[in-house]
Design a protein that fits this description.
Residues 115-204 form the CS domain. By secondary structure, the protein is mainly β. The protein has helices at residues 12-35, 90-94; strands at 4-5, 8-10, 62-65, 70-73, 76-79, 82-87, 100-103, 114-115, 120-125, 128-133, 144-147, 151-158, 162-170, 180-183, 188-193, 204-206. The two termini are 22 Å apart.
């Protein structure tokens, strides 16, 4: 069926968190341009690298990372660059060692959006299925939430450069006109109204391809 945009409400706490972050970023930006120094303790931006910036030498230290994107498919979690290593456990997935050698990167390129990992889960209550996606500092005007009777497609932009996308064939039918989105401080909540009373054992199957 046709996809429709879901109505989005942004909570006051989510609004103020974003405003605060924008202000902080502007203030930092003014300070950063002078010397381009990286704060000590900043973690490497490459996927799965846990090294932190200590001094100038950190800029040339070797880094093991995943150049690919995270894929969550049918309960399995893996990196698109390492399809052989799969797990159903989120924390185990996060501990998968990088497959590519490179050099640590400590600064965000604000012009480059990057795919990020968001933890998400869902629960059912009566006729509703609520999906929570844990992302802070969400930019509502850069997000998209679309729904049809059988499909949920979303794109979230948060913390300036991070993006998270999900495209699911839902486990059951929903009533698109009664579904809604709430952007809260710590998470994005998507409330789906079931089309019938059946219980969902899972949220659905990912329709995303490896390259999305």
């Amino acid at each position: 069926g046709d996809m429709v945009a879901m109505p989005v409400t942004v909570s006051a706490s989510a609004k103020s968190a974003l405003e605060k972050a924008i202000k902080q970023r502007e203030e930092q930006g003014e300070g950063d341009q002078g010397d381009g120094k990286v704060k000590v303790g900043t973690q490497c931006k490459n996927n799965s690298c846990t090294k932190c910036y200590a001094d100038e030498a950190s800029l040339s230290q070797e880094c093991l990372y995943h150049p690919g994107a995270p894929v969550f498919h049918e309960g399995y979690k893996y990196w698109s660059c390492c399809k052989k290593k799969k797990t159903t456990d989120f924390s185990e997935f996060l501990s998968f060692t990088g497959c590519t050698r490179g050099t640590c990167v400590f600064t965000d390129d604000p012009t480059k959006k990057k795919k990020a990992l968001c933890r998400y889960d869902f629960f059912q209550q009566g006729p509703q299925v609520t999906l929570s996606i844990y992302a802070k500092k969400v930019h509502p005007e850069q997000c998209e939430f679309q729904i049809s009777a059988t499909r949920l497609k979303l794109f979230i932009c948060f913390d300036f450069v991070n993006t998270f996308a999900l495209d699911l064939e839902l486990a059951g039918r929903v009533r698109p006109n009664e579904c809604k989105v709430e952007i809260l401080g710590p998470k994005v909540e998507i409330v789906l109204k079931k089309g019938d009373g059946s219980a969902w054992t899972e949220l659905g199957n990912s329709l995303m391809t490896e390259d999305d």
